[in-house]
Amino acid sequence: MGKLTKNQKLALSKIEGGKVYTLKEASDLVKEIATTKFDASVDIDVRLGVDPRKANQMVRGVVSLPHGTGKQVRVLALVTPDQEPAAKEAGADHVGLDEYIEKIKGGWTDIDVIITQPAIMGKIGALGRILGPRGLMPNPKSGTVTNEVATAVKEVKQGKIDFKVDKAGIVHTSVGKVSFTPDQLRENAKEFVATLIKLKPTTAKGTYVKSVYLSSTMSPGLKIDPKSVDEN
After folding, report:
1. Which pLDDT tens digit goes with each residue over 117-150?
2. Residue 28 has pLDDT above 80, yes or no
3. For an engineered disulfide with 210, which of 13, 47, 121, 151 has Cβ 3.0 to 4.6 Å away?
4. pLDDT digits (tens, 9 = 90+) for 199-215
5. HEC profile of the chain
6. What is residue 62's predicted lDDT score, i.e. its pLDDT?
7. What is the pTM assigned to this prediction?
């Protein structure tokens, strides 16, 4: 580990060793210990009591954060010509079909989310080897394959995110930026955890939400008491 800067030492001094914070305390503190010069992301990591190797314990879903993520999400709408005006009006950054499919085949993936129509999935299937590893493949479960393209584009632009538990049983996502107020961070985190709880598999036994951590880019994680997430 490299030598700690003065700011990093100051940030670490504000964290009580071994303390488990309430979500309210962590939402305040995560802003204080951020040491980056840019507007860092604030992330939440939730370890779940599931076995992701079992199909009936895979936790995946979408959530619309009350205050968005603070990120500029680049959206590509792969749609038929009649849907192009609505997709553009809804805020899609790139709109089209065949020309973008060819660009992706050539290696272009300078986007964050792809939204398309069910009738077009046959054409997009061939892009799986490129889009799949980058998490860009449209999926009906995440709302990115839909006939309501304009609605889907608006929701993504306003802070709707797709998440999935990883092999270690952890769900990781961004719940805002350091520039957000503590209340905005807390409300986004509460909405995310509440969504996870709604998605609890019936086959999951024992403690479902095992641990919750809040951190900003390059800052230490703050351990949160899961029970405090429900507190006002």
Report:
1. 999 999 998 899 999 898 899 988 888 999 999 9
2. yes
3. 47
4. 999 998 899 999 999 99
5. CCCCCHHHHHHHHCCCCCCCECHHHHHHHHHHCCCCCCCCEEEEEEEECCCCCCHHHCCEEEEECCCCCCCCCCEEEECCHHHHHHHHHHCCCEEECHHHHHHHHCCCCCCCEEEECHHHHHHHHHHHHHHHHHCCCCCHHHCCECCCHHHHHHHHHCCEEEEECCCCCEEEEEEEECCCCHHHHHHHHHHHHHHHHHCCCCCCCCCCEEEEEEEECCCCCEEECHHHHHCC
6. 87
7. 0.78
pLDDT tens digits, 36-82: 888 999 999 999 999 999 999 999 888 989 998 898 889 999 999 99
Name the token pair of 20.
């488990």
Residue with tokens 């995560």: 30
